Amino acid sequence: MPMQPRDTPPEEPAAAPAAGTAGPVGAPRTADATYDVLVVGGGVIGLVTAWQAARRGLATAVADPAPDGGAAQVAAGMLAAVTELHYGEEALLALNLAAAERYPAFAAELAEASGRDIGYRRCGALSVALDADDRAQLRELHGFQQRLGLSAEWLGGSECRRLEPMLAPGVRGGLRVDGDHQTDPRLLTVALLAACERAGVAFHRSLAARLRVTGSGTAERAVGAELADGTRIAAGQTVLAAGSRSGRLAGVPEAVRPPVRPVKGQVVRLRMPGAGTPFLSRTVRAVVRGSSVYLVPRESGELVIGATSEELGWDTTVTAGGVYELLRDAHELLPGLTELPLVETGAGLRPGSPDNAPLLGPTALPGLHLATGHYRNGVLLTPVTGDALAAVLTGGELPDVARPFAATRFAGARQHHEGRHA
């Protein structure tokens, strides 16, 4: 049975919702409602947070006009803790590795809870080099991976082509990483929605317009949100998990406003040949003319090619230039893909933080938590984010591996900046 929203407290008188607005899914229609937890944002991060909170007995609601949307609809779903490694991200690597280790059990738990498959595949990944400069750079990366104790095997060009016969003859070498896998973010979203509904999460399909805050000064506390349709939701704890839009919610005090920005990514989806015609068996990625490109083959026959990285604010236009560059660079790796049917193009916004790592857990404002800023690792970090937020929402602390990504880690720098410009 769905969890029932708690009665509205006397100090919060009910107000009728605007005419024609839909009530929450998974709970009776009410003018105002009170929950233990309100999650603002219904992408994979918001959904996993809501699901894990509800599993632990907390009356939970999600506010989002389209909880099956978000960046996951565009993401490729690479679970690439090793091949996504960048210099200076050693702390993030530990969190990514913990997430990759958690994924098999998470996929099984979610499949049981939802009755849905999330397309989790232990397919491995191959990073390749097309010229001498790229080969030297990849060799340097391999050395960095080895110093960190990561499992990655160097292969010559012919060995790469034996693994993936469709690769271009000019491939000069590559790194084989069997521990990097994939999932399908669209299937993941559907499964999380189903799991939330089965767990009794209430869905208010309206945009959160303003954070509700009571008290003043040191007595301030977040107590829920007001939605665009006029519904007021009271909650003991509020989780801001709205992706790149997390910093735009009205009513959030500047001292705790998450410093996230939108980073545009364009992708192309092709259709591979049917069964009996091997095309690509694992994720392949490379740097071509200084631009990163990856190709992710799905068991369904879909081939996802991505992704651009564009600091263009809130623009989500699919451009001819972006599509051309993706197909051009992918063609350098797999010349045969130009014969494949073009199925879809798309663009989404990744939530980037100042250090491109997530902001997790309690803020300096009591009652307000963050689960945002995951940038290019949102799908990978879904399980550990759900676990971490569930821990703090039930009165515990962030797990050790998540503590470097506490939501408060930029507060000192922000206050210093504000003080200099006062």
Structure notes:
The protein has 422 residues and is an alpha/beta fold. The protein folds into three domains: 1-122 and 179-259 and 354-422, FAD/NAD(P)-binding domain; 125-177, no CATH class; 261-352, D-Amino Acid Oxidase, Chain A, domain 2 (2-Layer Sandwich). The chain is 26% helix and 25% strand. It has eight helices and 18 strands. Strands 1, 2, 8, 9, 10, 11, 17 and 18 form an eight-stranded mixed beta sheet that branches. Strands 5-6-4-13-14-15-12-16 form an eight-stranded mixed beta sheet. Strands 3-7 form a two-stranded antiparallel sheet. Helix 1 packs parallel to helix 5.
What tags apply to this protein structure?
26% helix; D-Amino Acid Oxidase, Chain A, domain 2; alpha/beta; 25% strand; 3 domains; 8-stranded mixed beta sheet; 18 strands; disordered C terminus; FAD/NAD(P)-binding domain; 422 residues; disordered N terminus
